Amino acid sequence: MQPNPVLRKLGLRDDDRVAIIHADDVGMCQASVSAFADLVDFGLVSSAATMVPCGWFSALAGYCRQHPSADVGVHLTITCEWDTYRWGPISTRDPQSGLMDDEGFFYRSSNDAAAHGDPAAVAVEVKAQIARALASGVDATHIDTHMGTMTYPPFIPHYIQAALEHRLPIMFFRWGEEQLRERGYDAERVAQALRLIETLEAQNMPLIDHIAGMPLDGEKPLELAQQTFAALEPGITHFILHPSHDTPELRAIAPDWQARVADFELFTSEKLRQFIQDAGIHVIGYRALRDLLRSENH
Q1: What is the DSSP string of the chain?
Q2: In total, how many domains does the chain have?
Q3: Does residue 161 belong to any structural domain of this protein?
Q4: What mean pLDDT is predicted for residues 174-190?
């Protein structure tokens, strides 16, 4: 794969390493909203995405209205993975949509969502989530996808269409044939993905080269974060973390709560900030990509 053309457009070199340090799942619970506010103040996390169907989205939207420069996208959500804390679609309660399980909530896994969801109903839900975010005062900088569900074959066209309609960057990777095969793509899907990447770049859609991030299990010493950043390759990396404050609500919801709290603590670390700076890694948000997209596609 050739160097990402976005790098030169941003005034960078083809071999520069660029990271979008991205807080996922903001608005999922109260702890994610308060943590994000503190992370914005600290300044290392450069972007985030919010889950519109979740109970604390309104608080996140209120924060965005008060802080319009916050770099926040829409974390398109058509799954709900937790045992007791559940949410469902905002566009319908019709079981024929295939969006809901027997309990009336989103399916817990991406595989089940893709197996049951009517793509037309998913398209309506996607539009509803983006519309609610914008109407609530979120100046959306991009769209991405909870648990990767919108990148499953039945839903990709609607994922792409939403980005094009709103002129928003999308978390979509400009992987080459070898990378696609490593991820289990057969020959037909490899060919389709390569054509789609070519088409999107011809439309000036800025794409991402790599994905990295902090694991949601195990210990998270500072050294692990440093090693992960040191290993970044040239190009633009969507670097995922799931930061939250330590609260009783978070502990009740998420078995991986300790990893989420550790993400918050790591990314309010001066030592990590200095390491990233010393490593020569350029940190950007999705707003820079949105501005680029909109300047090229008037």
Answers
A1: -PPPHHHHHTT--TT-EEEEEEEEEETSSHHHHHHHHHHHHH----EEEE-TTSTTHHHHHHHHHH-TT--EEEEE------SS-----SS---GGGS-B-TTSSB-SSHHHHHHH--HHHHHHHHHHHHHHHHHTT-----EEEGGGGGGSTTTHHHHHHHHHHHT--B--B---HHHHHHTT--HHHHHHHHHHHHHHHHTT---B-EEEE--SSS---HHHHHHHHHTPPSEEEEEEE------HHHHHH-TTHHHHHHHHHHTT-HHHHHHHHHTT-EE--HHHHHHHHHHH--
A2: 1
A3: yes
A4: 87
CA angle 192–196–201, rounded 5-degree value: 155
State pLDDT tens for residues 135-165: 999 999 999 999 999 999 899 999 999 999 9
Evaluate whether 72 touches 47 at the Cβ level (below 8 Å).
yes
1 falls in which pLDDT band (50, 70, 90)? confident
91 domain residue, yes or no: no
**pLDDT tens column, 186-238:** 888 888 889 999 999 999 999 999 999 999 998 889 999 999 999 999 999 99
Cα torsion 68, 74, 227, 225: sign: positive
Q: Give the range of the structural domain holding residue 59, as residue numbers without chain letter.
A: 5-77+119-296
Whole-number pLDDT of residue 184:
83
| Per-residue pLDDT at 183 | 81
| 0.70 exceeded by pTM | yes
Measured from the Cβ of residue 265, the count of other Cβ atoms closer than 10 Å reads: 15
CATH classification of the domain holding 59: 3.20.20.370
Structure tokens at 125: 């839900």
Q: Per-residue pLDDT for 246 more than 90? A: yes
